[in-house]
Amino acid sequence: MYKYLIILLLPFLLVSCEIATKVEAGNPKPEISMNENPWPEIRNKRISELLPVALKDAGVDAWMIVCRENNNDPLADHIGGENAGGTAAFLFYQLNGEVSSIVFSPEGEATALAEMEIHDRVVPVERGKSALEEAVSFIKENQLNTLAINSSKDNSLADGLSYTQRADLEELIKGSDVRLVSSEEVVYNWLSIKLPEEVEIMKKAAALTAAWQQEAYSSVIPGETTDADVARFLKNKMAAHEVKDGWHPDQNPNVNSGKDRGHSHATDKIIQRGDVIQTDFGIKVHDRWVTDIQRFAYVLKEGETTAPADILYYWESAKKGNRVAMQAMWPGVKGIDVDRAQRKVMEEAGSAYVMWSTGHPVGYVAHDVGPNLGGSQATHVRPDSDKLLKEGMTFAFDGFHSWKLPNGDLKTISVEEMVVITKDGAEYLTPPQEELILIK
């Protein structure tokens, strides 16, 4: 067994060596100032530059987002509707080849909304009158007959229109030529692309995410430190730098030195010598942009100066899968084809089955809008796996290798990194993990 592993490892060992256990103090950590909020300016640019393209590519005449107080549409703050009190109708529409915006807003919020200078027109709606009714009158008058609304079975970010709001809208368009369609394509085309300014912010956030994980590993004392202790270390870093969780706080970070637990919380399991530790961690900066990165470490047994041959093989196999997936990521490539390239490496390396997709979009949320990098082994392929990668899309993606522990449980190394798609292929947002971190 070990002779076989050593032979397989030779190509990897020629190009790699392991890094020291304790992370050196003074590693550069790019700081992100929380005193300045770049979102308002970026939002305006996204609306003026990216939304017209998204609207035209979706082939609709108009897109309506209905905003209200408390139970608001999930896209409200992408269009300036985060401060809605009474019901307001935000409308983006095409007329004579030009894309414009108009908002029918309760008069109590209309002045402040107009001063934000996001939209071409803000029409105050008198108390006692309906913003939705006035918006529909505008739609009929301008023959905006294909109307996209936020109602979707597959995309929760495009599903913000409530049942009662839709019922009201259907009643208002009854007998007209206006046809309601899902805004899925508009939302997909718009949110899946990030501006260069956004990518730069995500690069800084990704660098922090990776650096903090290495720092967390440097605090581990075998036989004493628990998975939950490592998670608390990272929570404290987040608090000190005033950033938020990349996903649900109870499961971020997910630190696991035992068998596979899937999407889970860190437990009080004590980290032991011989353990492989997985940390899946993401932060949210400016209450907007999210990271999702994993880092792996091995806890040396007494007398060991390097990880054993089998663990090194699993690590290098997973890393190779990640690199092959990255090489497959180009504009015009389908998400399913990226997954297929990574699965081929898994098969050749003898990995056990892994149910997860190779990757997913990341940006405004951990699992963002965009092509799914999966489906090549599935009996039913989700539509997003057949979508094409485009410049400006950002992804978190893995290389996998899974094996059976002595007790029969599965353990998986999932080398997860973040990239942006450029005209020249994929580009890492922060340098990837090249070597398995060793803990003495």
Automatic annotation (TrEMBL):
<protein>
    <submittedName>
        <fullName>Aminopeptidase P family protein</fullName>
    </submittedName>
</protein>
<dbReference type="InterPro" id="IPR036005">
    <property type="entry name" value="Creatinase/aminopeptidase-like"/>
</dbReference>
<dbReference type="InterPro" id="IPR000994">
    <property type="entry name" value="Pept_M24"/>
</dbReference>
<keyword id="KW-0031">Aminopeptidase</keyword>
<feature type="domain" description="Peptidase M24">
    <location>
        <begin position="200"/>
        <end position="423"/>
    </location>
</feature>
<dbReference type="Pfam" id="PF00557">
    <property type="entry name" value="Peptidase_M24"/>
</dbReference>
<keyword id="KW-0378">Hydrolase</keyword>
<dbReference type="GO" id="GO:0004177">
    <property type="term" value="F:aminopeptidase activity"/>
</dbReference>
<feature type="compositionally biased region" description="Basic and acidic residues">
    <location>
        <begin position="258"/>
        <end position="267"/>
    </location>
</feature>
<keyword id="KW-0645">Protease</keyword>
<feature type="region of interest" description="Disordered">
    <location>
        <begin position="244"/>
        <end position="267"/>
    </location>
</feature>
<dbReference type="InterPro" id="IPR050659">
    <property type="entry name" value="Peptidase_M24B"/>
</dbReference>
